[in-house]
Amino acid sequence: MRFAFVSVFFLLLSLKPNFLVAKSQYDLVIYGGTSAGVAAAIQAKRMGKSVILIEPSSHVGGLTTGGLGATDIGNKQAIGGISREFYQNIKAYYDKPENWIWQNRSDYFNRPNEGRSREGEDAMWTFEPSAAKAVYDQMLAEAGVEVITRQRLNRQSGVQVRQNRIHAITMESGERYTGKMFMDATYEGDLMAAAGVSYTYGREANSEYGETLNGVQANYYTITLNGGISRNAVHHNFIPRVDPYVVKGDPSRGLLPFIIQGGPGVDGTADKGIQAYCFRMTLTDHPDNRIPFAKPANYRELDYELLFRNYEAATGPIEKMYHYGDPLVPWINTPMPNRKTDTNNQKGFSTDFIGQNHDYPEASYEEREAIAKRHLEYQQGLMWTLAYHPRIPKQVRDVVSKWGMAKDEFIEGNGWTPQLYVREARRMISDYVVTQKDCESLVPEVEDAVGLAAYQMDSHMVNRYVDHNGYVQNEGNFEAHVRAPYPIPYRSIVPKKGETENLLVPVCVSSTHVAFGSIRMEPVFMVLGQSAATAAALAIDNNQSVQEVDYAALRSKLLADKQVLSHQK
Questions:
Q1: What is the pLDDT of residues 387-426, one digit of tens each?
Q2: Which of 502, 472, 14, 66 is nearest to 255 (CA)?
Q3: What is the pLDDT of residues 441-483, one digit of tens each?
Q4: 499 vs 32, 428, 429, CA distance in Å?
Q5: What per-residue string of b and e applies to 54-89 under the rule 16 or more CB within 10 Å gives b?
Q6: Is 305 in contact with 315 (CB distance < 8 Å)?
Q7: How far apart are CA 554 and CA 139, in angstroms?
Q8: Does position 19 have pLDDT exceeding 50, yes or no?
Q9: Cβ distance 215 to 267 under 8 Å?
């Protein structure tokens, strides 16, 4: 009998069931396989800590591997550490001739106005999604990071807190992970919220933090705190006099789709509006690698009536129909290597599905999937419309129809990325809230910097509405420069004192809607992920809460690991 028991035990062991061999106790448990999560996991392993990186979807790398190959930085010298290492590895990837399949390297770098990537730099800042994935996979493997995918947090009861510390998190599958330290590296802030940490979403009133760009932003121009001008709705709005009604001139017949009833509110007042989401597109015009845009099965022409009317409202040459002589096609089609692009929203009716994501931050997983599906169907229909619909000007159709999805990117999605561009969702409220004043360098420089941000304050549109003249307008956009790279304090990536003591939040940073519009760039998320992991390791070593970490020791380690913490003017 004893022999039979031992035999069964070793048989089970050979099958490696989770309950016998799976390791669930870690120094650092990271929830969210975004760029921040990847950088954090690598840093933790380099510091000798056990770490697991848990991604709720099957896609690791967030937007960096999800189609956002046109890196928005503001100042390249502000990027150091693992973040810069990633871009240096991208350069090394493209230094290999075998990785130039659809284009000669010289053809790419000799293009005029390339902008982001130039020969002779130590790093490369533009890349294909597949290149980013290859680099991240290599970096994670070299560090020995354990990565788990398709494990979603049980947001209702899956966070076990004892004496103000997270003890374990449980997934919807029942898988359970315990740790000394935890990190929420998701775009949504789901672990942070489930742990009871203070947070917000939407737009604060200008009066709350003494800002000028927050809240409703329907005016075309706003004066910034340092006396500059933000052109809020000039570049991404409709041609004047576009009719919003199903039957032109007849309000009784109802509004066209995706226009809110009533105005957006008084300028500068708070609401729960979220800047628009979209899918970044990797397009190609190479005939051997191009998938032509397809008409969705549930295509509704009425969804694009405003697009048709926007072209029809143009007076004079169609090529000059947009303010400041913007190009004719409503996109930003930034060249990537191998005759591909990173294609993003531009103008009044484009890839941003304005106003259709406001419920996303607090929505259930199923509701978020439905929102993402609607975004995808809208955008697929838009691209077919621009390429082939007879009501679109021929000049536009001739340009767009030359392009299509890339066959060798996101193969399971027929060229479409699975990563919705969640530009903003929840934001933590901690002991330091980064505001417009920080972005404009109008406050004393913080003494606990863990990274720099350098991109302009930027928000996409939030609402589409009918103005007082009875025409359609978009609202919510602002674009305002920052004077120089500015520091992000450690206090903004950890909960306030008295709240969770072993959680770090490098993505849903404690900041206002305005400041987050500057911080929310992938290189910065990598920087903050590395800094957060460093702090977690120090907290473990010294048996401290994250709020108690000695900043002098943290700063010393960050500088040793080539993080950039101050701007040399």
A1: 999 999 999 999 999 999 999 999 999 999 999 999 999 9
A2: 472
A3: 999 999 999 999 999 999 999 999 999 999 999 999 999 999 9
A4: 21, 12, 11
A5: bbbeebbbbbbbbbbbbbbbbebebbbbbbbbbbeb
A6: no
A7: 23
A8: no
A9: yes
Dihedral of alpha carbons 264, 265, 269, 272, sign? negative
Q: What is the DSSP letter of 255?
A: B
Contact 232, 221 (CB under 8 A): yes
Distances (CA, A) of 361 to 211, 274, 423, 508: 23, 9, 11, 11
Return the structure tokens found at 71: 């890196």
Q: What is the pLDDT of residues 541-563, one digit of tens each?
A: 999 999 999 999 999 999 999 99
Contact partners, residue 320, CB within 8 Å, separation at least 6: none
DSSP 285-342: --TTTEEE----TT--GGGGHHHHHHHHT--S-GGG-SGGG--SSSEEEEEETTTEEE
Residue 146's pLDDT is what?
A: 98
Residue 75: per-residue pLDDT:
86
Contact between 101 and 169 (Cβ < 8 Å):
no
Residue 316: predicted pLDDT: 60
Structural tokens at position 530: 């590395």
Q: Can you state the percent helix, strand and coil of the chain, rounding each to 5? A: 30, 20, 50
- SS3 annotation, 429-462: CCCCCECHHHHCCCCCCCCCEEEEECCCEEECCC
Half-sphere CA count of 457, side-chain side, radius 13 A: 33
| Tokens representing residue 186 in the block | 């998701």
The predicted-structure confidence for 134-177, as pLDDT tens digits, reads as follows 999 999 999 999 999 999 999 999 999 999 999 999 999 999 99
CA distance 127 to 87: 9
pLDDT tens-digit series, residues 226-270: 888 877 766 789 998 999 999 999 999 999 999 999 999 999 999
For residue 32, give the DSSP letter.
Answer: -
- Per the structure block, which two tokens stand in for 344? 């993003």
Q: State the SS3 of 169-220.
A: EEECCCCEEEEEEEEECCCCCHHHHHCCCCEEECECCHHHHCCCCCCCCCCC
Eight-class DSSP state of 142? H
Q: Identify whether the C-beta of residue 527 lies closer than 8 Å to the C-beta of residue 537.
A: no
Single-letter amino acid code for the residue at 113: N
282 torsion bin: left (phi>0), alpha (psi -120 to 50), beta (else): beta
pTM: 0.94
- The residues with which 199 forms a beta bridge, in sequence order, are 428
Please give the share of the chain, as a percent, with pLDDT higher than 70: 92
For the chain, the straight-line distance linking the first and the last C-alpha, in angstroms and rounded, comes to: 78
Residue type, 501: E
